[in-house]
Amino acid sequence: MKNNFKENLKNLRNIAKLTQDDLAKLLNVSFKSISHWENGYSEPNIDMLIKLKEIFKASYDDIIE
Questions:
Q1: Helix (H) or strand (E) run with residue 57 in it
Q2: Is 45 domain-assigned?
Q3: pLDDT tens across 2-60, in order?
């Protein structure tokens, strides 16, 4: 994944007016996972990318590029 993922995720989450905790609950992951993704410490697996695409009604390009 490109380095833009973390910025794109945070922007999409803010546009959707979701907190990190809100998004974590929607994805059934920990708040820490969302924080790590947004800070570039880790990246989601493909299943999580699919769920993010559905939640934000965005393309993969909008999320990862």
A1: none
A2: yes
A3: 469 999 999 999 999 999 999 999 999 999 999 999 999 999 999 999 999 999 999 99
- What pLDDT is attached to residue 65? 85
Task: Please state whether 32 falls in left (phi above 0), alpha (psi between -120 and 50) or beta.
Answer: alpha
- Domain containing 40 equals 4-58
Alpha carbon distances (Å) from 56 to 30, 51: 18, 9
Q: Is residue 38 part of a domain?
A: yes
Contacts by residues 16-24 (CB-CB < 8 Å, ≥ 24 positions apart): 16/55, 16/56, 23/55
**Helix H segments across 18-59?**
20-27, 31-39, 46-56
4 near 43, Cβ under 8 Å? no
